[in-house]
Amino acid sequence: MSSAKRKSSGASSAKTKRHLGTPTPHTQAQTHPAGHSYVRSHIVNLFEPILGSADADLVKCTPTFVDVAAYEKARVEASENVTSGAVFATSAAANPVQLIDTIHFGKWRIGTWYAAPYPEEYCQQQTLYLCEFCLKYMKSAFMTKRHKLKCPLTSPPGNEIYRDGVVSIFEVDGKNNKIYCQNLCLLAKMFLDHKTLYYDVEPFLFYVMTERDEEGFHFVGYFSKEKRSSSNFNLSCILTLPIHQRKGYGQLLIDFSYLLSKKEEKPGSPEKPLSDLGLLSYRSYWRIAVLQELRKMNNETVSIEDIASKTFMTHADIVATLKNLDMLVKDSRDDYVICYNANLVDEVLSKYKSKKYPTIKPNLLRWIRYEAPKKTTS
Ligand SMILES: CC(=O)SCCNC(=O)CCNC(=O)[C@H](O)C(C)(C)COP(=O)(O)OP(=O)(O)OC[C@H]1O[C@@H](n2cnc3c(N)ncnc32)[C@H](O)[C@@H]1OP(=O)(O)O
């Protein structure tokens, strides 16, 4: 390394220091732990009063002359490649490979299903650490531990609008809690193949379901909903964390989305396409909802409109459900009629009841309908 290079290296340190408003620096040659000589500036003094000398010592971070030479060599080679027209952007670099196969979430380790567009440096981690309350993502257990000491949240950052025993549901506005909702979408993407919403969260409300204990409100699942849906979707995206699946929480969230539709007096349906698991869950929910209404009507003549007015399901979803149950048949006049065996309906309903899944109790909802703020005219 030429002395000219050494000088310029020292000068750049000096620039940094002056920018930080510190006295004129002194540079001195030192020996790197690896045995290479390097230029040490007194920038370390800036941090000493705060961190203590051991932590403030930047020796290990300071590039050695060997590092600088390696960088310069790589830079020259790179610029030669550019001028000779070599193609750099391999598909892997342009579209980094997702390595995250596990997330640490509270006390859980959860295997991921799909890639999520976390920033590239996080995608290169095999394990990602998430704060279970604010959903911040981190690279190490150490960072998570430190974060836990200062994280102000012990529940989702919204209004608790429903509580039944240990189960609560919070309404979180994508506009007021943008980072939380973006982190929530990234988390959901790891379990959902076709999800595309990550960053534009402002037009959505997020309904987050939690289980409460002495530590706080632990995330179980959520669904998102457009504040104004032109297609009358009452749910955009739903997730139950894999550690809580098959316990009836998906049905609970779906039921809650229909309870909101009832309050809004607007029938609704989930946004399409549904994932395979989404379809299974919705078919299961719709089947039980329709059968329950048929049972309540107790052999009276019943129309699709009657079922719709009680369930707030769309006519299309009711017809599809009845077809799946083989309950829609043509009569002698070639008209469709609903035809069912009451004993079979009872059997299905009592089997469902025996699972003892949690159910939504409408009287526990404390909620006022979202109203978009009025535009002020100047
Ligand atoms: C509009 C959309 O967002 S579509 C996208 C849907 N979301 C996803 O695919 C994300 C990943 N999946 C999930 O988060 C969950 O599987 C959900 C939200 C779809 C369902 O959540 P869960 O809490 O497991 O639902 P829940 O316990 O209420 O199960 C309801 C029923 O759905 C069906 N079901 C749910 N998961 C499965 C499964 N893996 N295999 C077979 N049937 C299933 C069953 O009929 C089940 O009832 P059962 O357990 O009594 O047999």
- The low-confidence runs, each spanning 5 or more residues with pLDDT under 50, are 1-42, 85-95
Question: What average pLDDT do the residues reach?
Answer: 84
From the coordinates shown, what is the CATH architecture of the domain at 97-153?
A: 2-Layer Sandwich
Q: What small ligands are held by the chains? A: acetyl coenzyme *A
* Structural class based on helices, strands and sheet pairing: alpha+beta
| Radius of gyration computed on alpha carbons | 30 Å
Summarize the main sheet.
5 strands, antiparallel
In CATH, what is the class of the domain at 97-153?
Alpha Beta
- The CATH homologous superfamily of the domain at 97-153 is named N-acetyl transferase-like
Helix content: 25-40%
Through-space gap between termini: 65 Å
CATH topology of the domain at 97-153: Wheat Germ Agglutinin (Isolectin 2), domain 1
Number of helices: 13
Order of strands side by side in the largest beta sheet? Answer: 7-8-9-10-12
Strand content: 15-25%
SSE topology string: HEEHHHHEEHEEHEEHEEEEHEHHHEEH
Write down the overall geometry.
elongated
Total DSSP E strands:
15
